[in-house]
Amino acid sequence: MDNKVYISDKDIKKAAVKVVNAIEGDNWKPDLIIAVTRGGLIPAGYISYFLDISNIDIVKLQTYEGEEQDLKKISEQEYQLQVDIQKIIKKWRPEKILIVDDLIDSCNTLKTVDTMMLAVQNYFKMTNIKVPVYDWRFAVLYSNENKNLLNKTAYYGEKKPDGWLVFPWDTRN
């Protein structure tokens, strides 16, 4: 891809601070941060430090691989994601969850996480498994202009520049 946009550590910190300021502006503080790997790991770290939240867990979901999406692989990931979310909710028993990723482009990843969070919540209700009623919101450092792609509250750092974003963790240089 020719149109690469290199994001610096300073850019990441600036975007993370904007996300945190928006969260604090809503007077909402999560009990748990869930990072969507791999891109959400470092942003979740920054946000957790800035909000002084030490409860962090991870889920894995990759909906984009080069030019194609393998639907069978995505379906398998969705099942595993649902299992992982169930384990996380049982482990932490959070009431407020912040789900963090690096960027929204197509929004497929966060829409999938949102769907699985709702499915797990419904599963707990149907099976009478006692967990707190939980609310989840999203945070991303960079988003395209289509911010209304999610049905949940979402916090955004910066508008995504045109091109392929290259984060410091994407390169060795």
Topology:
Blueprint: E1 4-6, H1 9-25, E2 32-37, H2 41-51, E3 56-60, H3 71-92, E4 96-104, H4 108-127, E5 135-143, E6 154-159, E7 164-166
Parallel strand pairs: 1-7, 2-3, 2-4, 4-5, 5-6
Helix pairs in contact: 1-2, 3-4
CATH class: Alpha Beta
Give the SSE string. Answer: EHEHEHEHEEE
Strand order of the largest sheet: 3-2-4-5-6
Number of helices: 4
Distance between the termini: 18 Å
Level-2 CATH architecture? 3-Layer(aba) Sandwich
> What fraction of residues sit in β-strands?
15-25%
Rg result: 16 Å
Give your account of this protein's structure.
There is one protein chain. With 173 residues, the chain is of the alpha/beta class. It has a single domain, classed as Rossmann fold (3-Layer(aba) Sandwich). The protein is built from four helices and seven strands; from the N terminus they run E-H-E-H-E-H-E-H-E-E-E. It has helices at 9-25, 41-51, 71-92, 108-127; strands spanning 4-6, 32-37, 56-60, 96-104, 135-143, 154-159, 164-166. A five-stranded parallel beta sheet has the order 3-2-4-5-6, sandwiched between helices. Strand 4, helix 4 (108-127) and strand 5 form a beta-alpha-beta unit. It is globular and about 50 Å long. The chain starts with a strand and ends in a 7-residue tail after the last strand. The model has no long low-confidence stretch (mean pLDDT 89).
Task: State the gist of this model.
With 173 residues, this protein is an alpha/beta fold. It has helices spanning 9-25, 41-51, 71-92, 108-127; strands at 4-6, 32-37, 56-60, 96-104, 135-143, 154-159, 164-166.
